[in-house]
Write a structure and sequence with these properties.
The complex is a heterotrimer. By secondary structure, chain B is α+β, with helices and mostly antiparallel strands. Among the domains of chain B are: 194 residues, Aldehyde Oxidoreductase, domain 4 (2-Layer Sandwich), CATH 3.30.365; 151 residues, Aldehyde oxidase/xanthine dehydrogenase, molybdopterin binding domain (Aldehyde Oxidoreductase, domain 4, 2-Layer Sandwich). In chain B, a hairpin with a 2-residue loop joins strand 20 and strand 21. In chain B, helix 13 packs across helix 14 and helix 15 packs parallel to helix 16. Chain B starts with 14 loop residues before the first helix and ends with a helix. The model of chain B has no long low-confidence stretch (mean pLDDT 97). Chain C is an alpha+beta fold. A five-stranded mixed beta sheet of chain C has the order 2-1-5-3-4, with helices on both faces. Chain C is globular, with a radius of gyration of 16 Å. Classes of the chains: A alpha+beta, B alpha+beta, C alpha+beta. Chains in contact: A-B, A-C, B-C.
Chain lengths: 291, 773, 161
């Protein structure tokens, strides 16, 4: 399982990276951590003619917090997982990252890489969608900001143009009053999720759901945001009954795949089980409540 | 002189000195000057006619030396054939590469030889093969259907073997039954998946005519015969030599077509060629295991006595015939051994083997395991039907192991300790407490289950009824007093370099550090069809080494007797010194005696013929006997997700005397881990078109440290019945773990009325059985 | 295309010329002759190829050799030798940690980093941390015992200082 031939270019500047991408178009692929790309290349399922290695780009390697939370695309999963800033600003990200593969994968894998790869069973795309995160992409034509929900468009497909590179992910700093929940079921520890759920819940002062986010992984070609369920939750008294009903609404609209690791019916069922657990956890974490 | 015996202790492994420091030498570490690299073009379809192969573009790629196809193999080599297949087993000999037809996804169609594996794979992509698809035959049901076209035209149908294995008055006993229960059990397709894939380096020297194959094989001598036969090489100039082997589990007993193609390429090019299989190829094409269907009927009395069994077995052996051993042998074993340690007086199993468009079946660690699984499952089902505790139904039916106890198939069951192992296990486990835990759990909405299963394994089997076999060892004491053991064993994790030295050290009186084991090289080791496999080493290899060592020691003492002028019976050897008993001050080092014996062989006796300080012993297994035991596990099933957690796993086992308890336990735990994988994680799955679905480790899931719990082991160590009383444990763990586990899962799901007759129970299946999904 | 790779391996400066597409594990094994690191799957799951890159465990089958230029690699060959096993290796020998040895290099490098960062690791945590290294022979118990024993020895040593 050896990769095919390619021209290798390495750069320490975003400007050079985007020039290279502009020059080679869809013949080129960016390599960061390589934890998703290299297996595909080894299997010869991915055949870039040009590989643009952006590992030395230092400007993309920071986590910043200044009103917003900004994670540079080259931040390694391990760094993000251990980042004290992220732990306090967006703890769901740190928690979800502990499910990503194993430590050796997280040593190299990057936030930007995971986002650009867009695997529907992966943790980060789902969590970022639930956080209303923005993906920032750069090309020779300038910078674009794309809402996470619009960014992941299909199986291993994003709305990135061939000559764009993800530079950072932006999210609101820990929204006051919001609680988070993240649940995942996988065949083994560290595997891709069969089904995963990222839930965010904000409470009003009368124990009712002011707002919610409910996003599933593993149930479609992209993370699936359950808009109807979120709508059903708004204004409801928080608790397992409301959550269960909302999940029934969500399940009806899900069209999960059938594969070796689970049937569609099984995934739909898991979505409701995990979804309830995630909503309960998010509720419990939402601030100002005595539980 | 006091000696500490090594046998029976967890002596540290000499292998670890190289394994722990990265200084092992596996076949991929073999590098020869001028070495080229091979890669295979493999069929992407399950069944097709090969219309044409165009390798012109590949041959033009810089760095590519040759491309060979099935046509070359058919023209210039002989096909592989099994050794002594059972009478009536039909097969077509197998050419090294697919010729005219491909018959499974992954079927090798061409071999490319290039400067590097990278370039070879580039070249593979440039080879165009034209396929005309044919109807794929993928299931047992399709294969037994006479209306379905034959995969091998000369074989008239896809049932290639059928034999009724019948012993005892089956019909009579069925007529006496109060109750007849029948169930159809299905074992799915899995694979051995050692961490080291297949591979080898082939080297031919046209000057000397010597052919050397650096291999990773469990059967070097048998492979040597095949190479010589297939490639027309003179046997006396053909050598197979192993390096360290990164696991095998039976897969590397098989002789693989890729090995023949690789060797042919090296022969024809006159340059060394390496092939190292990658994981994707391995999962596709190295061969798979199990995939059997057994309908089992039991004639039972109202009070739980099982009188007789009837069965219909079909084994799906994939497409090409197994070499050197066919699936027919395993099918017969299942039919013969299924009564196990129980007093079941008659058994008739119709055994069939079918071919399908899937990878060839290998013998994977206890290939006959269906007999243990189906029987132990059926016993639980019968117990439930009769409202008996599963322990009681076993107690009611166990053979006690007395003289005269035997299986319907004739094998003596004298000495088995199955009943003891069950009682001991339930006692150590605290069976009643476990049932209480289960009851409390149910009140809390938790689903705990307790399951256990008992097995016996013919390792080597009793003297009466087992196949005649013998194993040779040669022991030589060198002029410096150090000893070398030449064994036909081919260790690949079993620690034979350590255990055989423990036996020899105790017998010879020489420290372990002064003994070496030579293995894996056909030029220097004794012939054996299978080097290591079949759980036989414990008895056969240790026995051969023991008696060869004893014969050498006799020679040593004879020489010492001359030198010390003391009668042989008044001498003893310990810690490398020979001294008269009770007079340690007169001791002579073995090294002195040995050197003098070499210089003056008359010291060994004027009348004596033969090599100095060297002995060969062919050991036939002595009285032998059975290994076996009872495994118990407690599981908790999460009925929301279908996840199965193993809360406790307890083994009570009896393998007679142990050479090295740490190594015995490692073998058992490894087998159990594979059993956990078999039931909860692993599936070599094909779709209805014969496309393979589990070709990477993302889809073929091996158990990790998170899935395998701590496993407690209690040893029964039943009394020796012979001087050599070590019995094999290589396969036991995997033989019985699936039974213990599935028994526990069914027990956990009892409140849902679930009955389990299939072995693959991933979370989604659990929820289907429970009815949630 | 051919590229120069310059890196430090087990404390020694090493250099090679290789194709850009050559993976780090192949470079270590073939170009540098360090065959202690093993190839198990080439898609990052089995862990047999694990080495330390600047002290952190990585899958060398998922890195290109050129990406390791300028970095420090630690492989099993740097840990100890047959006459002088290091404490981790000694403990794993005592516990009969391994059987065929093919997965061993990956486990040792993973464990080396783990024990350095968290010598007080619990058995439960260790089981989870090791789940990225696959062994087909042992059922893991003997490996866990060995590494826990090494952890205790290291903790004692550190406690005594």
């Amino acid at each position: 399982m050896k990769p095919g031939n390619f021209e290798y270019r390495v750069t320490d500047s975003v400007d050079e990276a985007v020039s290279l991408l502009a020059e080679h178009g869809d013949e080129a692929k960016v390599i960061a951590g390589g934890q998703s790309l290299v297996p595909l290349m080894n299997l010869r399922l991915a055949r870039p003619s040009v590989l643009v290695d952006i590992n030395p780009v230092r400007s993309l390697g920071a986590v910043r917090r200044n009103g917003d939370v900004v994670i540079g695309a080259m931040v390694r999963h391990r760094e993000a997982e251990r980042s004290t800033e992220l732990r306090s600003a967006t703890p769901i990200v740190c928690h979800a990252l502990s499910y990503v593969g194993h430590p050796a994968i997280r040593s190299r894998g990057t936030i930007g890489g995971s986002v650009a790869h867009s695997d529907p069973a992966a943790e980060l795309p789902t969590v970022l969608t639930a956080l209303d995160a923005t993906v920032v992409a750069r090309s020779v034509r300038g910078e674009r900001q794309i809402l996470a929900e619009d960014f992941f468009t299909g199986f291993l497909t994003t709305s990135l143009d061939a000559d764009e590179v993800v530079t950072e992910i932006r999210m609101a700093d820990r929204k006051a009053g919001w609680g988070w929940g993240f649940e995942e079921f996988s065949r083994r520890h560290g595997d891709f999720a069969v089904v995963g759920v990222a839930a965010m819940v904000a409470a009003d002062d009368r124990d009712r759901v002011a707002d919610a986010r409910l996003v599933f992984s593993g149930v479609g070609a992209t993370p699936v945001r359950a808009h109807e369920a979120e709508e059903a939750l708004r204004g409801e008294s928080a608790g397992s009954e409301a959550f269960r009903e909302a999940l029934a609404v969500a399940a009806r609209s899900l069209d999960p795949p059938d594969d070796l690791h689970g049937s569609a019916a099984y995934r739909r069922h898991l979505a409701t089980v995990l979804g309830e657990r995630a909503l309960m956890a998010a509720w419990e974490r939402s601030s100002g409540k005595d539980r | 002189m006091a000696t500490t015996r090594s046998v029976g202790t967890a002596a540290l492994r000499i292998e670890d000195q190289r394994i722990l420091t990265g200084r092992g030498r596996y076949v991929d570490d073999v590098v020869l000057p001028g070495m080229l690299h091979a890669a295979f073009v493999r069929s992407p379809v399950a069944h097709a006619a090969i219309v044409g192969i165009d390798a012109s573009a590949a041959l033009e790629l810089p760095g590519v030396h040759a491309v060979f196809t099935g046509a070359d193999m058919v023209e210039r080599t002989k096909p592989l054939e099994p050794i002594n297949p059972p009478e009536g087993f039909r097969f077509e000999p197998v050419p090294a590469l697919a010729h005219e037809r491909v018959r499974f996804v992954g079927d090798p169609v061409a071999i490319v030889i290039a400067d590097s594996r990278y370039i070879a794979e580039d070249a593979c992509e440039l080879i165009e093969v034209d396929y005309e698809p044919l109807q794929p035959i993928v299931t047992i049901e399709e294969a037994v259907d006479p209306a379905v076209p034959a995969i091998f035209q000369s074989l008239q149908g896809n049932v290639v073997f059928e034999k009724m294995v019948s012993n005892g008055p089956v019909d009579e006993l069925f007529a006496q039954a109060d109750l007849v229960l029948s169930r159809t059990f299905r074992e799915h397709r899995i694979a051995a998946v050692p961490m080291e894939c297949r591979g080898g380096v082939a080297e031919y020297s046209s000057g000397t005519g010597r052919f050397t194959f650096h291999a990773s094989t469990q059967s070097p001598h048998s492979l040597r015969l095949q190479l010589s036969n297939c490639l027309g090489l003179p046997l006396d100039r053909t050598q197979v030599v192993n390096s360290d082997i990164g696991g095998a589990f039976g897969l590397k007993i098989s002789h693989h077509r890729e090995e023949i193609a690789l060797c042919a390429a090296a022969l024809w090019l006159g340059r060394p060629v390496k092939w190292m299989e990658d994981r994707n190829e391995h999962l596709l094409a190295a061969g798979q295991a199990r995939d059997e269907k057994l309908t089992l009927e039991a004639a039972v009395t109202r009070d739980g006595r099982v009188l007789a069994l009837k069965g219909d077995l079909v084994v799906d052996s994939g497409c090409y015939v197994g070499v050197p051993f066919t699936a027919g042998t395993t099918a017969i074993m299942i039919g013969s051994l299924i009564t196990g340690p129980y007093d079941i007086k008659a058994c008739a199993v119709n055994c069939r083997v079918v071919v399908t468009n899937k990878a060839t079946r290998n013998a994977y660690r206890g290939p006959w395991a269906m007999e243990t699984w189906a029987r132990e499952r059926l016993l639980d089902i019968i117990a439930h039907e009769l409202e008996m505790d599963p322990a009681d139904i076993r107690r009611r039916n166990f053979v006690r192991g007395g003289e005269g106890d035997r299986m319907p198939a004739g094998l003596s069951l004298e000495g088995i300790t199955s009943a003891e192992s069950l009682e001991r296990n339930l006692s150590v486990a605290g069976y009643d407490e476990l049932r209480e835990l289960q009851a409390r759990g149910r009140e809390e909405g938790r689903f705990l289950g307790v399951g256990f299963a008992t097995f016996i394994e013919a390792a080597p089997g009793p003297l009466e009824g087992r196949p005649r076999r013998s194993e040779r060892a040669r022991v030589v004491i060198q002029p410096d007093g150090h000893a070398i053991i030449y064994t036909s064993q081919v260790p690949h994790g079993q620690g034979h370099e350590t255990t055989l030295r423990q036996v020899a050290s105790d017998e010879l009186g020489i420290p372990m550090e002064h003994i070496t084991v030579t293995h894996g090289d056909t030029q220097t080791t004794p012939f054996a069809l299978v080097g290591t496999g079949g759980s036989l080493a414990a008895t056969m290899a240790n026995g051969a080494v023991l008696y060869a060592s004893r014969a050498v020691k006799d020679q040593l003492l004879r020489a010492a007797s001359e030198l010390l002028e003391v009668a042989v019976e008044d001498l003893e050897v310990a810690d490398g010194d020979i001294a008269p008993v009770g007079v340690p001050s007169r001791k002579m080092p073995v090294s002195d005696v040995a050197m003098r014996a070499y210089m003056n062989p008359a010291l060994l006796g004027d009348d004596r013929d033969g090599e100095v300080l060297s002995a060969v012993f062919d050991y036939s297994g002595g009285k032998g006997g059975w290994s076996g035991g009872t495994h118990l596990c407690m599981v908790e099933v999460d009925v929301e997700t279908g996840h199965v957690a193993i809360r406790r796993y307890l083994v009570v086992e009896d393998c007679g005397q142990m050479v090295n308890p740490a190594i015995v336990e490692g073998q058992i735990r490894g087998g159990i881990a594979q059993g956990i994988g078999e039931v909860l994680l692993e599936h070599s799955a094909y779709d209805s078109d014969g496309n393979f679905l589990a070709a990477t480790f993302m889809d073929y899931l091996l158990p990790t440290s998170s899935e395998v719990p701590p496993i407690e082991i209690v040893h029964l160590e039943s009394a020796p019945n012979d001087e050599v009383s070590f019995r094999g444990v290589g396969e036991g763990g995997l033989l019985v773990a699936p039974a213990a586990l599935t028994n526990a899962i069914e027990d956990a799901l009892r409140p849902f009325g679930v009955e389990i007759t299939e072995q693959y129970l991933p979370p989604s299946r659990i929820l289907e059985l429970v009815g949630t999904v | 295309m051919s590229m120069t790779v310059e890196l430090q391996v087990n404390g020694v400066e090493r250099r090679g010329e290789t194709e850009a597409r050559k993976t780090l594990v192949d470079f270590l094994r073939e170009d540098l002759g360090l065959t202690g690191t093993h190839v198990g799957c080439e898609h990052g799951v089995c862990g047999a190829c694990t080495v330390l890159l600047d002290g952190e465990p990585v899958r060398s089958c998922l890195m290109l050799a050129v990406q390791a230029s300028g970095h420090e690699i630690a492989t099993i060959e740097g840990l100890g030798n047959p006459e002088n096993l290091n404490p981790l290796q000694t403990a794993l020998r005592q516990s009969h940690g391994f059987q065929c040895g093919f997965c061993t290099p990956g486990f040792l490098m993973t464990a080396t980093a783990l024990l350095r960062d968290d010598p007080g690791i619990s058995e439960e945590e260790l089981r989870a941390e090791l789940s990225g290294n696959i062994c087909r022979c042992t059922g893991y118990q003997s490996i866990i015992e060995g590494i826990m024993q090494a952890a205790h020895s290291l903790a004692e040593q550190q406690g005594g200082e």
